[in-house]
Amino acid sequence: MIDRRPFTLQESPVSGEIHGDPASKKVVVLSHGFGVFRDSRGMYTELAERLGQDRLVVLFDYVDVDEAGDTTVRPLTEQSAMLNAVLRHVRETYNVKELSIVAHSQGCLVVGLSNPDNVDKVVLNASPMAAPSQARMQETFGSREGTHIVSDGISTIKRSDGKLTYIPPEFWAETAGIHPIELYARLAERTNVYIVQAMQDHVLPNQDYSALRDIEGITYIELDGNHDFAGDAREGWLNLMVQLIEGK
User: 200 lies in which domain range?
Assistant: First the structure.
């Protein structure tokens, strides 16, 4: 087991944990997806174990978590500000020589909105090709008892693990102006971007990545696995992430 240390930032505010050797000059920041915790349902803790042997790996929450373990999401612009706060903290606290970001699902949009500079590479996994919408959420979660998506007020989504995710109306208010392809293309003007499509994605099926394949600075990769690269696909995903981060 690698060392892990909690941290909090008053700016935004942010809470999270740092895995690995604090003397390392190589840092990987992990940006999780919609409504889940910073461990991204085990994806990120497993990745931190792989990368934390000679790197610092930073996990943090975009969501507020109540005593029942239910989550409340923040608007994407607030999530972007949280990511920027974490990146500033990392640069100010550690002697960083190499900085990478790994993002998953909606966390890819957050990185695109932040468009950070001085980042060596960004890996976007199962990235959305359309902005979040009430129609998409209804299609994905609407059949689950306990899900209520409303145009005004607080929406509630029942997750596969039985937990609830609450969505404030402010979240929907800004999503209409988000254009993912433009965000990813702009990000590629600043850093090397790898986009990994989950070929059996069950949460965001039928995603069309063709517009990204010819954009300079973007490397497109297809990988077998569902949205979370769960089960037998996890090992292949972990190996790919290590390969991309280490540049092998």
Answer: 4-63+77-130+179-246
